[in-house]
Each structure stands twice: as C-alpha cells, then as structure tokens.
Write a structure and sequence with these properties.
The structure is a single chain. The chain is mainly α. It has 2 domains: 42 residues; 108 residues, Arc Repressor Mutant, subunit A (Orthogonal Bundle), CATH 1.10.10.10. It contains 7 helices and 3 strands, in the order H-H-H-E-H-H-E-E-H-H. A 3-stranded antiparallel β-sheet has the order 1-3-2. Strand 2 and strand 3 form a beta hairpin. The longest helix has 25 residues. It is elongated and about 65 Å long.
C-alpha cells in the first residue's frame, strides 16, 4: 500500500497548522498528479530499459512505427515530437543508426530532405517494447474501472485545456 495519501495528508495538516489562511486542497491535488506522473514515468522507464531503450529512443521508434509502412519520415517531423536542437537530435539518431534500429537516407524527390527509416530490427524491438509498455500501463491502472478511467481522462483533459497564467 502506498504511503502517498498519508504523506499528502501530513502536508496538508502541517500547512493548516502553520498557515490556516491557506487552502491546501489545490496544492494537494497537484502533488497527487505530480507523484502519479513521476511513478508512471519511472515505471515506463524501467520497462523500456529492459529493451535497452530510453524514452527519447522509444519515442523515435514508436513514431516511425505509428506512421506505418514504409516506417519512415523526414528528420524535421521527428524534431516536432522530440524537442531537441538539430545537433542533439542528430547525435541521438546517430546512436540509433549505429545500433541498426533506424537508417538514414535522402528523399528521392528532394535530396536535401533527410529521411529516417525504421529497420526490421528496430521494428521488432519497438513492437516488443510497446507491448511491454502498454501492459505495464494497464497493470498500473488496474485499480480503476473502465468508467473511472473514462471519468479521470475527462477530468485530466479538462485541466490540461486550461491555460496556465
């Protein structure tokens, strides 16, 4: 059983004693979201590590996989999902090329355009890693019914749509 509810309750109790003028409920909710996000990030990072992948590498491989056959796209499309400088992205892609998970080539119609393509090895790896990642997420959310998940998704979407000032 997680100690998180007790930690958050302690947080609220301490602040209420020191500053009874502050409403601790909004910060407590934010803490729950932050702790949950950290927990799920760590879970998924450990699952991906079993396949020798970091998040950024999984993001590249899964983006190429989701595009569908022939599993390739211009580098600038990848830079939209992986917010790095072009030099940093190139360096990371070099590592994936070296591992033979992707290949790099030029567009037939525009030789200036660099294309990144998922190799057969990369496709097999991302398929296995995606299955493990999705299974881990399913397991992590098993405490919620489908109706509860749908309600939680709706509430989170509502919060995510509010601009932060």
């Amino acid at each position: 059983m997680s100690k998180t509810p007790a930690v958050i309750s302690g947080f609220q109790s301490s602040w209420s004693k020191q500053r009874p003028d502050l409403d601790t409920n909004s910060v407590a909710t934010e803490l729950r979201v932050q702790l949950l996000a950290r927990r799920h990030t760590e879970l998924n990072a450990s699952v991906l590590a079993e396949y020798g992948l970091e998040w950024w590498a999984y993001d590249v491989l899964s983006e190429l996989c989701r595009i569908g056959a022939p599993y390739e796209c211009p580098v600038n499309q990848l830079s939209k999902i992986i917010p790095l400088t072009s030099g940093a992205l190139t360096h990371r892609l070099d590592g994936l090329v070296e591992r033979k998970l992707v290949s790099r080539g030029n567009d037939k119609h525009d030789r200036r355009k660099v294309l990144i393509k998922l190799t057969k090895t990369g496709k097999r790896l991302v398929d296995r890693a995606a299955t493990a990642r999705f299974d881990a997420s399913e397991s992590a959310l098993q405490a919620l019914s489908k109706a509860e998940r749908k309600k939680l998704d709706s509430l989170l979407d509502k919060l995510l749509s509010v601009p932060i000032v």
